[in-house]
Amino acid sequence: MKGPLFYAKILLFGEYGIIKDSKGLAIPYNAYRGALKASENLSGTALESNLNLSRFYAYLLALKTDLVSFNLVAFKEDIQSGMYFDSSIPQGYGVGSSGALVAAIYDKYAADKITILENLTRDKLLNLKTVFGLMESFFHGKSSGLDPLNSYLSLPILINSKDSIEPAGIPSQKEGKGAVFLLDSEQIGETEPMVSLFMNKMKNEGFRKMISEEFSTTSDACIEDFLQGNVASLFGNVKALSKIVLANFKPMIPPAFHKVWENGISTNDYYLKLCGSGGGGYILGFTEDFAKAQKSLKQYKLELVYRF
């Protein structure tokens, strides 16, 4: 048994903002992927994954919803036969490891599933996103459903608001100097504590005002620039966003990277932003000159995502 591949995702813009109904832009990241496999002799991470699938099975068995039903008999039998999720997607890194797993389980066991070959109307996309949010809540406590949606469709997704999402056409990559890259913090980040921290901060009126007037507005402008291919304007807005995140989301940035973050803003060699919920994992970088950014960040591991 070997299932289809499901890819990692990168939320280019919109982290935390999408919880509060501002825009988001997510793209598939094909460097990492996962698939359902089976083995009679499980050990190590495969055994761990199999046990995790048993817990997920119990969660889906107790899930009360009219939106979706699953062939749980087959799911249980496959788990007992040694099924596991074989994945290269790093966990706790903000690139959708649980999202790819959720997409794989939906694809294999959902009854009357919405397929990627259908005409994906707004209602179908919202239905999928809601179902995926319910499923992925097993891993994070609360989920927007965006990661599994991105992995399932393997398309860039534009979130306009909670009730409006659409596949997005992003400009094709160029062989220019500019780039989007991942910086490895070499620390695991946990989504749930970071989201809880954010929700607590949202109780503060000043923080709420900053989110709606500064953070969301700047993030939305970045999305607009990226989709339109306005590279010059994009970097100005990404720099502004990087400053806002440093000033207001410090607990979500690993302490060892506060100075690295400031250095990018002051030298203009690169600009950093959160990749997912933060707290560790990957940090997302934008640069007008990737070679210069590599030189500035030579002691860190960088991965190229997109070229301008």
Automatic annotation (TrEMBL):
Domain of life from the UniProt record: Bacteria
InterPro entries: GHMP_kinase_C_sf, HddA/FKP, Ribosomal_Su5_D2-typ_SF, Ribsml_uS5_D2-typ_fold_subgr
Molecular function (Gene Ontology), one example: kinase activity
Protein name: Mevalonate kinase
